[in-house]
Q: What sequence folds into this?
């Protein structure tokens, strides 16, 4: 599965490390943090897929993003529940998501109007643990997204960078 991902700032990774003791109550803890902006599917012609992404984002300016707290999905469309995540506010990223929907079909239940910008921390476990974690106050983390990553989900690595131009 290929996707376009938002690089996660170092402060978010540091926060996830600080939260680790509280995340141990969950079945799985995300070790590598990323933020999916748009799923692209599996394609045999990776270079063509990358070219389509670059064309779709041509002329797109950098955007601001902000982690505002911890939230959870109590009933996610895929996988075990709950999913605990860092909530990201960014009208700019939501706009880029919509631009990518013009070039690539949405994944039902995950994209389009259902898209929620977030960085997954952990999943599986009790709603009580998720609620308790979500009640924590966090200092917001703000950053400028000046590029995106073309991501190989099978290998869990970025394949290339997609710059956002000024």
A:
């Amino acid at each position: 599965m290929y996707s376009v991902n938002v690089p996660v700032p170092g402060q978010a990774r540091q926060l996830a490390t600080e939260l680790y003791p509280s995340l141990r109550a969950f079945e799985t803890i995300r070790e590598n943090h990323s933020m999916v902006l748009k799923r692209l599917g599996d394609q045999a012609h990776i270079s063509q897929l990358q070219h389509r992404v670059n064309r779709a984002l041509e002329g797109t300016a950098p955007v601001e993003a902000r982690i505002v707290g911890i939230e959870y999905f109590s009933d996610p469309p895929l996988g075990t529940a709950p999913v605990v995540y860092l909530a990201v506010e960014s009208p700019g990223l939501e706009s880029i998501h919509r631009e990518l929907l013009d070039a690539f079909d949405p994944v039902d239940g995950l994209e389009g109007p259902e898209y929620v910008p977030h960085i997954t921390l952990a999943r599986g476990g009790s709603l009580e643990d998720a609620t308790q974690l979500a009640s924590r106050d966090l200092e917001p983390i703000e950053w400028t997204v000046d590029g995106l990553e073309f991501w190989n989900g099978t290998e869990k690595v970025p394949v290339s960078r997609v710059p956002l131009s000024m």
